[in-house]
Design a protein that fits this description.
single chain; four-stranded mixed beta sheet; 48% helix
């Protein structure tokens, strides 16, 4: 079936504006709602770390779904709401009946929530958190550097206790941007930590 000229032109403009790197096409593989969310969240987080700006997420209109209900579209719309609260997504606009343009938040938005206040006069021995001991030493060193920079920008105390809490928080945030099927997950995590540090220094 030949596509209408309007559709072809619209797609050409989208490809020129977003390109492959800034387009997530969920419609092509026809995933379940849960699978679509599992693919979309790490992709959006990774694109945020790459400071991609506006990205295109294609969900389809749900015509092929049972009852014509757009379950993938609805699930992805809910995901956008969750990621807005987490500082990943800044805004979302419906682009077509089957796609969204997503403006990703600045990287710094991920880390703007202050860490929990520690009890005064509690001394913490130097060393990386036990929760992160499975990571390689270079990865932990990168996380420590990022945590110190984040606390500096937030104006928070850079005591050992705060640094360790912030390292754990940074790891939780950044590891969410590593896809489950990534072959070198720790290498990817190191890349994301360095990207976050660069974003702090550039802002």
């Amino acid at each position: 079936m030949t596509r209408p000229l309007r559709f072809v032109l619209h797609r050409a403009f989208d490809e020129a504006r977003f390109g492959f790197a800034r387009t997530l096409d969920l419609r092509a593989s026809m995933p379940s709602a849960a699978e679509a969310v599992r693919r979309a969240e790490p992709w959006l987080r990774e694109r945020q770390m790459a400071r991609a700006g506006d990205v295109l997420v294609i969900t389809g209109r749900g015509k092929g779904s049972p009852g014509g209900i757009a379950v993938v579209r609805d699930a992805i719309r809910r995901l956008f709401g969750t990621l807005k609260r987490k500082g990943v997504v800044e805004s979302v606009a419906e682009h077509t009946a089957g796609s969204f343009v997503v403006t990703l938040a600045p990287v710094r938005a991920l880390f703007e929530t202050m860490p929990r206040t520690r009890t005064k006069n509690v001394r913490v021995k130097p060393g990386d958190p036990k929760e992160l001991r499975a990571l390689a030493a270079p990865t932990r060193a990168l996380l420590r550097s990022l945590a110190q920079r984040s606390l500096e920008i937030l104006g928070a105390p850079r005591t050992e206790g705060f640094i360790r809490d912030e390292m754990i928080r940074q790891f939780a945030i950044l590891s969410s941007a590593v896809a489950p099927d990534e072959i070198d997950r720790e290498g990817r995590l190191q890349f994301l930590v360095e990207a976050a540090r660069d974003a702090f220094d550039d802002d």
